């Protein structure tokens, strides 16, 4: 209930479907917060670091991957020794799929994640800070603009992504 004299500060969301939702054709990427992050209570910290780097959240949902979906997502690695355990890991618990938007965001998110192997990842990166090993490494991030578009489409319908204004709505 909003009363006289009470200042309610709300974030104004405006929703628009269709291809125009992408503000100024801003770059976007797919970040997956993997099941190990959820289990370790790191979801908030990962999200904070994404926002701290200037990433705007355009889509976000919690999902439990099926083996079929995880296997398809990582099909490029089908013949690698780590493929099967990777799929098992990704379906072990829910994860958060996230569309992140911003200038040069694909590279920014890859830099923030760090090397696949946390031992090789630079100081301050998410994987260096939180990952256990090169399988359980907290986050996925698209590795190119082209793959980002494909990966976003793999998880999100247009109506599941949002265009919102960077403006505080005051009553
Ligand atoms: P990336 O996530 O840094 O882009 P990719 O080579 O695309 O790394 O591998 C996809 C995922 O597969 C990694 O994030 C990690 O979870 C897992 N993975 C990659 N290499 C290995 C490995 O040598 N052993 C175990 N798991 C691996
Ligand atoms: Mg990759």
Kindly describe this structure.
The strands form two sheets. Strands 3-4-2-5 form a four-stranded antiparallel sheet. Strands 1-6 form a two-stranded antiparallel sheet. The model is unreliable at 1-21 (pLDDT under 50). The chain is globular and about 55 Å long. The longest helix is centred in the last third of the chain and has 11 residues, at 145-155. The chain has a single domain (20-161), classed as Nucleoside diphosphate kinase-like domain (Alpha-Beta Plaits), CATH 3.30.70.141. It has helices at residues 35-39, 43-52, 67-73, 83-91, 105-113, 126-130, 145-155; strands at 9-11, 28-33, 56-63, 95-101, 139-141, 168-170. By secondary structure, the chain is an alpha+beta fold. The two termini are 12 Å apart. The structure holds inosine-5'-diphosphate (IDP) and magnesium ion.
| Sheet of most strands | 4 strands, antiparallel
Q: What share of residues is helical?
A: 25-40%
Question: Low-confidence parts, pLDDT < 50 over ≥5 residues?
Answer: 1-21
Quaternary structure = single chain
How many E-type strands? 6
| Strand percent estimate | 15-25%
Major sheet: arrangement of strands: 3-4-2-5
The shape is: globular
CATH-assigned homologous superfamily: Nucleoside diphosphate kinase-like domain
- The structure class reads alpha+beta
The radius of gyration is: 17 Å
Q: In the CATH scheme, what's the topology name? A: Alpha-Beta Plaits
Q: Terminal Cα separation, in Å?
A: 12 Å
The CATH class is identified as Alpha Beta
Q: List ligands, each type once.
A: inosine-5'-diphosphate, magnesium ion
Overall domain count: 1
């Amino acid at each position: 209930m909003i009363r006289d004299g009470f200042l309610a500060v709300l974030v104004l969301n405006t929703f628009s479907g269709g291809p125009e939702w992408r503000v100024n054709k801003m770059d976007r990427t797919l970040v997956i917060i993997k099941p190990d992050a959820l289990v370790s209570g790191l979801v908030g910290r990962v999200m904070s670091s994404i926002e701290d780097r200037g990433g705007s959240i355009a889509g976000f949902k919690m999902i439990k991957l099926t083996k079929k979906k995880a296997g398809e997502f990582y099909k490029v690695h089908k013949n690698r020794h780590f493929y099967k355990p990777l799929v098992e890991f990704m379906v072990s618990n829910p994860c958060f799929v996230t569309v992140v938007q911003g200038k040069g965001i694909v590279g920014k998110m890859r830099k923030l994640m760090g090397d696949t192997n946390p031992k090789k990842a630079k100081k301050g990166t998410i994987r260096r800070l939180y990952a256990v090993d090169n399988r359980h490494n907290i986050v996925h991030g698209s590795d190119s603009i082209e793959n980002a578009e494909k990966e976003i489409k793999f998880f999100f319908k247009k109506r599941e992504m949002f265009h919102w204004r960077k403006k505080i709505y005051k009553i």
